[in-house]
């Protein structure tokens, strides 16, 4: 690779890998969201439980103090009881005793009270963050290091006056002192639980992602096996022999629809290839017939020049050349129509006026025929004028070859359609051949053959031109002769008409 060429990102190319990667990515986002929610909810719940435990410990401390009992040092949570007028703590434990008991109490003393702070209520406490100061008399040993940290603290005040002098003396405070019981709420338990849960969730999430990716990979792999079989079989289809068909699964899912669609497509290709082979064979036959006649006449004339009627030979050659020219033009037009190219030079055409003009100008030199056009009003359609003229000429040529005495053209406006019919009084077309007459190079067993100068492509071209202009061309059943009906979308009249 050239050093100056930018490096392309390498992404998985297979559908299996891409689907597995997409599923794993979506699962990772989902699991990350769930993990974040679990983390915060668990931390909140753990903190609430820790606060509830601290509240129960505070309640127990208050009950002991009201009984005049000094709480012991053993406690599940750090606590300290301080009082006004007293330098040292009344009691401490749960890690707060690691401060020197003979030194000043750690947490601030309350203000002096002259009555019960709760106004006679049974229970009340306050919670707010407090910083535990760092002091030289602190030695946590192997315990929890509390100094220097800021923690939520629950506290409740007790007026010694309601305890009585004996209980106040037992607690080592004066009868008018105010006691405050502190309980420190440690987040360590909630953080430890949350951290442990996070590690478990992380390991479970990674394992889940691997399992999801693997499950999706192999599921898609199994699901795509019919697609791979279809790919292998369709790869063996060739333009000259599109007869292979894929096996349609009986499961009824999307693969079944895919197989059915591919089979239908292969069938259309097969039909198209068959039509193309017949068309090429028929075209070769049609070209060979005038060429053979032309070549034979010229070879005979050249072999016996003194006995040749040269004007008659030239006339025959000219007639066969015109036939070849007409056939070549028809083949080129069909090739252009088969490309499904958009209509060029779209304009508004008065089909009634066009039919009337062609009726007046149509040459009837071989035999006398009555050619009439019946139209009551202008019939405007959108499209190419030359295409419509070619379409009508083909219908007239077909009718003129097979009519006995009369050809009738009728043009009418019917709602949003323009309907044109060409009716001759010839031998007609059997009902079973009503559609075959529009096929290319079709020979019928009756008089409607191409022995009278037709190329066998006129009606096929006429129908293709009708379809190209969003119309239809059909053979209408009649008891006498043949009647071709052309239906086209009606267009508004041009401005000024």
TrEMBL record:
- Using the UniProt record, name the top-level EC class of this enzyme in a single word: transferase
Q: Where are the transmembrane segments?
A: 20-38
Pfam families per the record? Answer: HATPase_c, HisKA
Q: Where does the Histidine kinase domain start and stop, copy by copy?
A: 282-492
Q: Which residues form the HAMP domain?
A: 221-274
- The name this protein carries in UniProt is histidine kinase
Cellular compartments per GO CC: plasma membrane
| InterPro entries (alphabetical) | HAMP_dom, HATPase_C_sf, HATPase_dom, His_kinase_dom, HisK_dim/P_dom, HisK_dim/P_sf, Sig_transdc_His_kin-like_C, TCS_sensor_his_kinase
Kindly list the GO molecular function terms attached to this UniProt entry: phosphorelay sensor kinase activity
Superkingdom per UniProt: Bacteria
Q: Which reaction does it catalyse?
A: ATP + protein L-histidine = ADP + protein N-phospho-L-histidine
Tell me where in or outside the cell this protein is found: Cell membrane
């Amino acid at each position: 690779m050239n050093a100056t060429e930018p490096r392309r990102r390498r992404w998985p190319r297979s559908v299996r890998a891409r689907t597995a990667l997409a599923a794993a990515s979506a699962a990772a986002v989902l699991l990350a969201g769930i993990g974040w929610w679990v983390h915060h909810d668990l931390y909140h719940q753990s903190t609430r439980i820790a606060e509830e435990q601290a509240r129960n410990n505070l309640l127990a401390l208050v009950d002991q103090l009201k009984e005049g009992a000094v709480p012991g040092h053993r406690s599940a949570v750090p606590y300290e009881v301080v009082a006004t007028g007293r330098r040292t703590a009344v009691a401490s434990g749960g890690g707060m005793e690691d401060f020197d008991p003979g030194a000043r109490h750690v947490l601030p003393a309350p203000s002096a009270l002259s009555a019960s702070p709760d106004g006679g209520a049974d229970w009340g406490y306050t919670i707010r963050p407090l910083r535990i100061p760092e002091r030289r008399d602190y030695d946590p040993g192997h315990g929890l290091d509390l100094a220097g940290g800021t923690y939520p603290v629950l506290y409740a005040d007790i007026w010694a006056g309601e305890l009585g002098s004996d209980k106040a003396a037992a607690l080592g405070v004066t009868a008018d002192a105010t006691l405050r019981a502190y309980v420190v709420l440690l987040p360590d338990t909630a953080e430890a639980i949350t951290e442990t849960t996070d590690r478990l969730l992380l390991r479970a999430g990674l394992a889940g992602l691997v399992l999801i990716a693997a499950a999706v990979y192999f599921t898609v792999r199994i699901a795509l096996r019919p697609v791979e079989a279809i790919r292998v079989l369709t790869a063996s289809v060739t333009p000259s022999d599109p007869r292979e068909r894929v096996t349609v699964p009986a499961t009824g899912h999307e693969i079944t629809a895919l197989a059915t669609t591919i089979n239908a497509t292969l069938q259309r290709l097969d039909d198209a290839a068959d039509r193309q082979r017949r068309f090429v064979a028929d075209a070769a036959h049609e070209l060979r017939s005038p060429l053979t006649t032309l070549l034979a006449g010229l070879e005979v004339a050249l072999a016996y020049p003194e006995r040749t009627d040269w004007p008659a030979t030239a006339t025959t050659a000219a007639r066969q050349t015109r036939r070849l020219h007409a056939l070549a033009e028809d083949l080129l037009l069909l090739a252009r129509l088969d490309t499904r190219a958009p209509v060029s030079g779209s304009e508004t055409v008065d089909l009634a006026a066009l039919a009337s003009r062609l009726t007046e100008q149509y040459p009837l030199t071989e035999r006398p025929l009555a050619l009439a056009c019946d139209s009551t009003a202008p019939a405007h359609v959108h499209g190419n004028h030359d295409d419509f003229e070619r379409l009508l000429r083909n219908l007239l040529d077909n009718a003129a070859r097979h009519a006995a005495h009369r050809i009738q053209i009728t043009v009418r406006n019917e709602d949003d359609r323009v309907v044109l019919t060409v009716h001759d009084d010839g031998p007609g077309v059997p009902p079973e051949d009503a559609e075959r007459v529009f096929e290319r190079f079709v020979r019928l067993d009756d008089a409607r053959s191409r022995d009278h100068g037709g190329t066998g492509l006129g009606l096929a071209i006429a129908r293709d031109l009708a379809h190209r202009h969003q119309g239809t061309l059909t053979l209408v059943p009649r008891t006498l002769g043949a009647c071709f009906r052309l239906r086209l979308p009606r267009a508004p009249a041009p401005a000024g008409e």
